[in-house]
Amino acid sequence: MTTSAIKILLIEDEFILGMDIADTLTAEGYRVVGVAEDYTTALELFQAHTPDLVLCDVQIQGPYDGIGVIRRLSAIRSFPVIYLTAFTDTVTFNNAKETRPAAYLVKPYQLSTLRTSIELALHRFTEETIEAGTPDEEVPEHEVTLGRDSILRIDEVIFIKKDGRFIKIQLTDIICIIAEGNYVMIKLATTRYLLRLSLGMFLEKVNYSRLVRTHRSYAVNVTKVDNFTESEVMILDQTYPISRQYRDDFLRSFMIR
């Protein structure tokens, strides 16, 4: 498979409840990498599967509560977290707030609320990652909106919205991008996706140096190229045009000795 659903680590020490939440998330198209009941299991799953997001019950058994587990996982790398809790007291909330969660959901909660919280958590985490790379730039406050053609990026991964859900695509798996009227087609080895964007806008949003424009209607992943001439490039037995206007940019993407 060239794409995969968003990977979620669930930290919940009530077995039946944990399985119920995991089944619900799986039915919604997410990939639950595991259900951890304590810090040791959470750490093993976190390191083995590199989840995109963590759902964590605040009150779990063991040497560390949910907040303590998140503090220790956050020391390894940054990630968005959503707390699930039955507690609404100020002390618990303030302790949780110190770990900068994306959301704090009080049980019972609606599935639609959880789904929206997951999407916003990923979006905000991406925004914060981008801002962290440009700390001197002042970013105005704005309302977060996720349109059907939103593109999110974390490292070598993008998320595109399809049927109300964000689908993960590895940038390294993309073969080419093809303009089709007001749309672009993202072509992978076995899958294709359509987005209502111009080719130029898509390349600007994704900002991936390996995707290089070869024609007004085509951009290819140069790491996938099998061979090329001055007028065309071949990838997996398919040819794509190289126009004179973009030929130099295409050649510059290779290290010429």
What does this structure look like?
With 257 residues, the protein is an alpha+beta fold. 31% of the residues lie in helices and 30% in strands. It folds into two domains: 3-132, Rossmann fold (3-Layer(aba) Sandwich); 174-252, OB fold (Dihydrolipoamide Acetyltransferase, E2P), CATH 2.40.50. It has a five-stranded parallel sheet with strand order 3-2-4-5-6, with helices on both faces. Strands 12-11-10-14-13 form a five-stranded antiparallel sheet. Strands 1-9-8-7 form a four-stranded antiparallel sheet, with helices on one face. Residues 130-145 have low confidence and may be disordered.
Radius of gyration: 21 Å
Tell me, what's the shape?
Answer: elongated
N-end to C-end Cα span:
36 Å
CATH architecture descriptor text of the largest domain: 3-Layer(aba) Sandwich
Rounded mean pLDDT is: 85
Helix/strand/pairing category: alpha+beta
Quick one: CATH superfamily of the largest domain?
Response regulator
Q: How many helix segments?
A: 7
Class of the largest domain, according to the CATH hierarchy?
A: Alpha Beta
Number of strands: 17
Number of domain modules: 2
Strand content: 25-35%
Strand line-up across the major sheet? 3-2-4-5-6
Into which percent range does the helicity of residues fall? 25-40%
CATH topology description of the largest domain: Rossmann fold
